[in-house]
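Complex 302.
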Amino acid sequence: MGETRQNPWTILEILRWTTGHFQEKGVAEPRTSAEVLLAHTLGISRLDLYLRHDQPLTPEELARFKAFILRRRAGEPVAYITGHREFWSLDFKVTPAVLIPRPETETLVSSVLEVLKSENGKRKTENGIDWALEVGVGSGAIIITLARELPEMRWLGVDISGPALAVARENAARHEIAGRIHFLRGNLLAPLQPGPRFQLLVANLPYVPRPVWEELPKDIKDFEPQEALLGGVDGLDLIKPLVQAAPGVLSPGGWLALEVADGQAPKVAALMAETGAYEQIEKIPDYLGIERVIRARRRGDY
Ligand code: GLN
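Predicted structure with glutamine bound:
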């Protein structure tokens, strides 16, 4: 974009230039990055970029877009620049205080829906309300999606980060679900009263083993919250205590569903088996075929 131009840039010209520039600079997903950032600059959809390919950019639009190009070139994830990310076809606010929702996490959501939707209406606790819990809510993408899909349940969301909880609360309000989700700050199950109350405990905890974390692309490592990613040397620093403590808060027959790293599933399944508290321990693959979710049920006779 260095040269002086007689005519203003059109949408298509600037897209082509930016894609090439990102490619040259080794930016991940150069074309998508250019499209999403330009659409965000102009306040239009990505499809509109192509419908209006001849439209010239005003000097103000160009200046704003240039600033986004520089941020993306420095590795900043597109979702932090735009402040949004889509998950399960819903729009979520994201800030650097929260992990950006990943497509593979939709596997965690569908693995929960698979068991809870079929039990719909059959679950009856004493006061008629079924409770579900998410530990480590981050942006709230998982708990909010599930709460919308399972409208008869009440939800409790825990996170250790105050700034993350603020984002989750805002997303809950935006998706008109705030009345059915209560958020609490704390580490794992620490803020909860003990007692078998929950029909579901779902969590996408930090699970990246330290050696893997060291090698992560800078887009992730330098920008996304370490406390949402890093799970200690083997990645199980948080998953292990949660697997051990979860039977204390799950109702008999209640479900535990956890997202795990590539290769972790057998270890987590073994941890579950060791407790003697779970049955129907299952490993569920994501769309890439990676065992991404472990789902199990608290035994009735435990
Ligand atoms: N899937 C994420 C990543 O690879 C990790 C998320 C997590 O630790 N829960 O970046």
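The mean pLDDT is 94.
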